[in-house]
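Attaching the record inline, Q. Sequence:
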Amino acid sequence: MRQWTEYYVTLSNQIGRDGKRRPLGQQMDNEHLDKFTDEQLRQLHDLYTEIQTANEEFTNKDEKS
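Structure, as predicted:
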């Protein structure tokens, strides 16, 4: 429960109510990454790729407006 609470607080602070864009999430240390299975690492990489693509599309949309 403690980790979920920390996650909630971190995202709340990153999203904020001031409308400013901030990077979401945080760096994962090697200690945590070493505990992931190959499948989990692949999923994490896929998620990263999707986020990068969505961010590029969002940025391009803002530039056209």
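The mean pLDDT is 84. Helices lie at 2-15, 30-33, 38-64.

More tomorrow.
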